[in-house]
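Expect chain and fold; see below:
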Amino acid sequence: MARLSKYAVRGGIVLTVFGAAGMCGKIASTANVQQKNEILWVDGAGILGGLVGGAAATMAVGLADATGPVGWGVALFASAVGGDYAQKSGKAVGKVLYDQYGQKLDLTSGTVIGRLCS
């Protein structure tokens, strides 16, 4: 189980990096500053939601570790579903936050993300 958890952690890091690279690619391929900001808010919140979900899933796997092989399988399935749900929930929250506050703030022009992803 310890070996499996190491792979899960590394896989989570790889998926987070791919998500950030995908967000950066979307920002770079969009000319409209308002659309760039929306992408940053929505996809950025999705990545943060996925990180929070991943942390919660790690705790769940740790708790299920004591229950044996059946608990391990349930925990791994629950962590995969939970991570996906957390990422989608994060995107939904990001969209609401963008609609409320993000249209007034230009985060892509004056930040490191904006310079890296242009």
